[in-house]
Amino acid sequence: MRNVLFAAFAFATLWLCLNLHSRTGYFTYKSEIFGDKAGYYIYLPATFVFKFEANQVSDTLSDAVGNGFLIQNGKIFTKYPIGVAVMQAPFFLVTHFVIAPALGYPSNGFSPPYFKMVDVAAWFYMLLGLWIMSKVLAVYFKPKLVWIALGCFLLGTNLWYYYAVESGMSHIYSFFLVAALLKITQRIHQNDKVDGWLAFGLGAVAGMLLLTRFTNALLLPIVLLWEVRSLAELKHRFKLFLNPKAIARILPVPVLLAAVQMAYYDYLTGTPFLYAYEKESFDFLHPNLLQVWFSPHNGLFVFAPIMVFALVGLGRMAVKKLPGAWVGIGLFFISSIVFASWWQWYFGCAYGARSFVEYYPVYIVGFAYFLQWLASKALLWRVAGGSLIVLLVALTFKNGYVYKLCYAGQGDWDWNWFLDLVGSV
Fold it and tell me: Which candidate, 291, 307, 302, 292, places its Cα nearest to that of 422?
């Protein structure tokens, strides 16, 4: 029965993604390869179609995909790192060499099958990320609670939006990688050694995290800090991971990935080092924390209100001195300051605070603990709390379904705009 339910869930989530994009067309701002999404994706056609020869690229292609990449100085330029393209590569290769020719479409990287390929890739990593998180949570919680927590976070935050609507963005890929990082960390701590496939997997996941989104570096301390209960355990973790043998087993994949990224930068500029984001930077002296958390312009708690329960859960875990609590709490405040200090704290056209999506695996643990605590209360509290969560999940999903890709309010605190969104159907 469990396998049947999972198959039905997989089919329904794939249908949602493909159905939503059946109405967006191609080469439109709503399509799968446009703007930032094209910037992440371009490595694949650049490698397998254009051979990194800019003169092979149509003069109109960059404009057609929202200038997510550019032709500059005779080079194919994108400021985005390679991680998303690497993870999309298996799906691209099947599309390029099998599906597009079989269906009679040009194998040019931008015919209709390639757009659908982006949907399938995002759906796959979403599904795999949730499955891995179910294994992470199963160590601490009962199966029924695990799947309730995962379902609430999928539909009650912008997590679903970043696999089904903005499927070409990096966030769902990072979500999967963080889930994998948590599971590998659990296994290494259980085995109390870093060797074999666990060492290889840790290196691959860590390297991919960094080269999918550079700010994912904030998540790497999870490896050392997750489930630490004492200073003695922390010292043991440092010895476990930071000894020459462990480092030698972990580093090859990250070094290889970094070499590929640097080779691309060398192709662009003649040097393997480049800050591709040019004038975009952080201002840590003036973080916009209130906006990041509470603004109707992509504020975290406005578009993912169940995050409140996740943080309450982490707080209760900290009071009970349960492992993992302070990692989640610390990550929340550190990442909030980093995101609030970015020159564009609202991260452009987004549904909610998209920069937090990759952190959801950690917050799901706190949310599951909150549900467990709620389940221990009197019936009235369980009914009231459960009803509120269901209402917030339904409202958040509905808002995302009718959202028009960009905030359209006046200034950062236009609550009338948000109320119109809530009332729309």
Answer: 302
